[in-house]
Amino acid sequence: MDTPRLYLQLAGRYRQAIESGTLLPSQRLPSVRNLMRTHDVSLSTALQACRVLEEQGWVEARPRSGYFVRRPARSTIAPVPEPESLVAINPDDFVGMHHRISSYVAKCAAHPVSINLGGAVATPDAYPMEALQRAMARVLKHQPGLLVRAVPIHGDPGFRQVLAQRALEVGLQVSPEEIVVTYGCTEALNLALRAVAQPGDTIAVESPTYFGILQAIESLGMRALEIPASPQHGMSVEALSLALHTHTDIKAVVLVPNYHNPLGSVMPDEDKARIAALCARHAVPVIEDDSYGRLHDEPNLPRALKSWDQTGNVIYCGSAHKTFAPGMRLGWLMPGRWRARVEMLKYANTRPNDSVVQIAAAEVMGSRLYDRHLQKLRASLLQWRNQVIDTIAECFPTGTRLSPPRGGLVLWVELPPGTSSDRVFELALQEGIRVAPGTLFSNSGRFSNFLRISAGQAVTPTVERAIRRLGDIVADQAAGTSSPKKPSPRNP
Amino acid sequence: MDTPRLYLQLAGRYRQAIESGTLLPSQRLPSVRNLMRTHDVSLSTALQACRVLEEQGWVEARPRSGYFVRRPARSTIAPVPEPESLVAINPDDFVGMHHRISSYVAKCAAHPVSINLGGAVATPDAYPMEALQRAMARVLKHQPGLLVRAVPIHGDPGFRQVLAQRALEVGLQVSPEEIVVTYGCTEALNLALRAVAQPGDTIAVESPTYFGILQAIESLGMRALEIPASPQHGMSVEALSLALHTHTDIKAVVLVPNYHNPLGSVMPDEDKARIAALCARHAVPVIEDDSYGRLHDEPNLPRALKSWDQTGNVIYCGSAHKTFAPGMRLGWLMPGRWRARVEMLKYANTRPNDSVVQIAAAEVMGSRLYDRHLQKLRASLLQWRNQVIDTIAECFPTGTRLSPPRGGLVLWVELPPGTSSDRVFELALQEGIRVAPGTLFSNSGRFSNFLRISAGQAVTPTVERAIRRLGDIVADQAAGTSSPKKPSPRNP
């Protein structure tokens, strides 16, 4: 239901010209009249394109002279390099994710947080609270009996109907009966893993990847085999192919193809197709987490990897958490040929989800309001992300690297070599600033100088101060001089 | 917060006198004036006690003559015998519960049901719908931001506060921080099992027991060791002791001490104390499911087994499903010394529960309304249960046996030897009547001539017709003459 907007296409074209160096800083952008003629567009489209470029910081307007190319601070920051080797990391290193996450969770819970840059979710204001509230109130008014009636065996059919309709937009044709609703994407991932693998089995994942995936794997007694992933394109197909030949005990591949958490990478369509085919050939199921796909900057929604699946070998997982209802704990899976086993595991794990939330979510997700909300959210995210990147570029020390993603909620920031992100996390937390240290995203220790920083809120003066303070802490740690401003006896 | 009512105590005393044969059918009950004098109670108390006995069918009023003892139909039905042997059933028999449950679920989903006698939950009318609706509406009005805010790491503190207060009533003193909120008791049981045992481990359970427990065990790759259980007193302490000496690989004992599903049994306090001590001595954790404890006929709430736990060896699980909010999927555990591991597993499995439902549940559960609701529910359940038992006693064939429980939601009915409850289930389902066949409650096949029948609704003329029809089907099957009234081509 997404309409690619002409002005966004036009703005994108000029952004690329600036990024690639075709247009240089201080050069004048073609006049609005020229844009109209060259691209055969209306005045309004040409003007809107210029305004988008201005909002994103790529051009600045000079009165009576037109738009001039700027080089935003973010364009000075070097990208995160591609992984050095394509060899998977030995899963024998796989230990302790539970402990690290529990320790992270405990520390976060123990410290009041004033600025949360640690989450992979946008600020509450960015979500359609009133629409959700109205929808919930309507369900409660018209169907209060749902609160006191045991949930029917297969849950609410209306929500699965809407999910099946929305799945068409990412290239998936499934019937509502082929969808299982879960408590968040977390339960979906757990059920998918349990459906296809046993304790002791090896699961291939991106390196780095979302800590929830590593924790689910560890909590189920499985082993994560970390496959090198590119900050641009996600999991390396070559590295996965190599691993499938070397490690014959791989029982599943877990992937986040679109706006990866924490990398921000998007897997190119040809790689999605190759991985679908490669895994089908090896009879290794793919578990796809597409929680972030709808948070794209470009006009087009990226396709699901599952849309290249011809044998039911891909289990597709999604969630309402990132896109429209962070407080409602709704997820889902399309389990392909593991449907019967996933249905059984869902019943054994938590029984069908309660109905009220599903019916309210279906009402919102099935309406045009959902499309309008996403359009607005995506525009905000693009703007906020650029603001955060600009601030980081301005105030983090030399040697900091970052590959600006084209969508999603987070930034994967490489600190100068040797900087301990665990230490940065602890020092920042003492000042009420929460970030996620790189050690949460891999069992390998390869990312101990990375931070995941949320880009899900506007850079207000308060947020800017927090990022600047974070930059100071990083600079201190990078220089090897440990001088936190407020040393705490609890955390020396 | 429960006040034992004097008139209920008085009625209970005379009920026992009738049951034990001290007072015989057609004998006259002492006059109201005599009751007042003998027991030193008010006119109102004496009258209320007589009315309770009349409602429960133990006496009948004859105009101007007083109350006369009746023998309700249920007093003619023989109790289910004690298990014949105290030897646990070999867990190598443990296979296929998944398949049986999936097949049951699929058949139930495929057939429209007009009379549901298959559930272990009361009719929706028996629950405080309006109070829950109002509480939900209030949360949505005053805290709509909860819908769009990621749930904080340890969930809602208010609900755990109320749970800790209510736990005092069953003899448990825990702090709110020691409680983990889950999606129903099902998730609580899963987390408890995963906290203390690994795939391949053996778990001791009652035989028979709730199929959800058997399914959770099987789905986690564990093995259920079925310990003989008495229809009166639940799991045999002797049999468990024997099993703990014989099977050294038992890693946990799962118990439903109060108003067991399906048995209806209540474990005597001395057995609870002995099991707590026995398991502590063997260092085998106990997982207690106390979902039904508040559905007691007697004035006093039965104590939790965990109240005899001195070392944190008992994990206590509870739920809102049976007592006040079947549609809200709220459960909880008090994990004792496995708290850190349970918290981690909850985070890895489904993340913290969403807040709206918890806050609304806390409001209802923390108020006097909850006590009043439970008092009313308990009185209804007692009445309904007696009505269902009377109807079964009247219209099921000779050889049917049933031990009337003193609380809870279900009846465990033994059909004449050789009667297939699977066949009865299928034939009844074709006529729109759902029951739960005994094969769901054990891996042993020992209960293939048992039915679990819900006692959670009044015996209206429609329900009475359904039970009578069920009695006909049972009689047909018991006699070996298979003549369903409406043969279906789909299920010959």
List keywords for this structure.
homodimer; Arc Repressor Mutant, subunit A; Aspartate Aminotransferase, domain 1; four-stranded antiparallel sheet; 15 helices; globular; aminotransferase (chains A, B); transcription (chains A, B); WH-like_DNA-bd_sf (chains A, B); transferase (chains A, B)
List the helices and strands and how they pair.
The structure is a homodimer of 492-residue chains.
Chain A: H1 6-19, H2 32-39, H3 43-55, E1 59-62, E2 66-69, H4 97-110, E3 115-116, H5 129-142, H6 157-167, E4 180-182, H7 184-196, E5 202-207, H8 211-219, E6 223-230, E7 234-235, H9 237-246, E8 250-255, H10 269-282, E9 286-289, E10 314-319, E11 331-334, H11 339-349, H12 355-365, H13 368-395, E12 401-402, E13 410-414, H14 421-430, E14 433-434, E15 436-437, E16 450-454, H15 461-478
Parallel strand pairs in A: 3-14, 5-6, 5-8, 8-9, 9-10
Antiparallel strand pairs in A: 1-2, 4-11, 6-7, 10-11, 12-13, 13-16, 15-16
Please name the CATH architecture of the largest domain in chain A. 3-Layer(aba) Sandwich
Spatial shape of chain A:
globular
Which oligomeric state applies? homodimer
Q: Looking across the biggest beta sheet of chain A, what order are the strands in?
A: 4-11-10-9-8-5-6-7
User: Which spans of chain A have pLDDT < 50 for at least 5 consecutive residues?
Assistant: 481-492
Averaged pLDDT of chain A? 91
Radius of gyration of chain A: 23 Å
The helix tally of chain A amounts to 15
Structure description:
2 copies of one chain form a homodimer. Chain A is an alpha/beta fold and 492 residues long. Chain A folds into 3 domains: 6-71, Orthogonal Bundle (Arc Repressor Mutant, subunit A); 76-84 and 91-126 and 371-478, Aspartate Aminotransferase, domain 1 (Alpha-Beta Complex); 129-368, Type I PLP-dependent aspartate aminotransferase-like (Major domain) (Aspartate Aminotransferase, domain 2, 3-Layer(aba) Sandwich). Chain A is built from 15 helices and 16 strands. Chain A has an 8-stranded mixed sheet with strand order 4-11-10-9-8-5-6-7, sandwiched between helices. A 4-stranded antiparallel sheet of chain A has the order 12-13-16-15.
